[in-house]
């Protein structure tokens, strides 16, 4: 049976870093959560904690969105498209996750989401023991080859309260994501983040436990 363990925000970072340190060689880490949970912020803290010890690159999901002409084909607030079509899953696999393991190279950004043009980023070459941190929403349960995944969980009530009114159209997509992709089940580490000042870790029980 899983254990719910209250921790500090720094304790969350320490738990993620400890998971990374347990994996030898290059590590592909996903930090997933609704925009209201701010997965980018946790990812940035993890990057900062790791950077003094090993090379690390942070890739944000919006830099791998499809071109606006594709992702906004059905309008700016189509929740189904946001869930299924905004992220260019194959580009993220092709430019980041697979070459990182194969030869240590990563393209940190494909497209500037503000201008919808090429980010003009250059590929970087990373050594063994490096880490790539990919942060964003709806990343899990999609066949992407992450070595470690973290999911920031918000209860339905907290998600609704913390989502700005102008982004409320994404709520049906996030409900579908939880139901169809099971990010909590897919993640190696789940963080209950209803109150960002007082998070809790969901710690799996022993194998075979009910």
Main features:
210 residues, alpha/beta, seven-stranded mixed beta sheet, 8 helices, 21% strand, globular
Shape: globular
How many whole angstroms does the radius of gyration measure? Answer: 17 Å
Number of helices, where a helix is a run of at least 4 consecutive DSSP H or I residues: 8
DSSP helix fraction:
25-40%
Uncertain spans, ≥5 residues at pLDDT below 50?
A: none
Task: Describe the sheet with the most strands.
Answer: 7 strands, mixed
Distance between the termini: 5 Å
Q: How many runs of DSSP E, i.e. beta strands?
A: 11
User: From N to C, what is the helix and strand string?
Assistant: EHEHEHHHEEEEEEHHHEE
Mean pLDDT, all residues: 94
Beta-strand share of residues: 15-25%
Sequence of strands across the biggest β-sheet: 1-11-10-9-2-8-3
Overall structural class, as computed from helix and strand content, comes to alpha/beta
């Amino acid at each position: 049976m899983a254990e719910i363990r209250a921790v500090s925000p720094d304790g969350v970072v320490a738990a993620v870093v400890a998971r990374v340190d347990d994996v030898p060689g290059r590590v592909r880490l996903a930090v997933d959560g609704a925009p209201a949970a701010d997965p980018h912020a946790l990812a940035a803290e993890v990057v900062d904690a790791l950077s003094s010890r090993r090379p690390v690159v942070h890739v944000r999901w919006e830099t791998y969105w499809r071109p606006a002409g594709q992702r906004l084909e059905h309008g700016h607030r189509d929740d189904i498209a946001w869930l299924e079509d905004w992220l260019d899953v194959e580009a993220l696999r092709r430019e980041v996750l697979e070459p990182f393991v194969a030869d240590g190279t990563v393209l940190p950004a494909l497209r500037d989401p503000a201008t919808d043009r090429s980010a003009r980023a250059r590929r970087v070459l990373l050594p063994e023991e490096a880490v790539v941190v990919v942060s964003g929403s709806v990343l899990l349960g999609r066949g992407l080859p992450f070595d470690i995944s973290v999911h920031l969980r918000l209860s339905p009530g907290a998600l609704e309260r913390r989502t700005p009114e102008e982004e409320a159209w994404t709520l049906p997509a996030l409900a579908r994501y939880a139901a169809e992709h099971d990010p909590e089940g897919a993640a190696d580490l789940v963080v209950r983040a209803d109150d960002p000042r007082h998070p809790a870790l969901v710690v799996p029980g022993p194998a075979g436990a009910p």
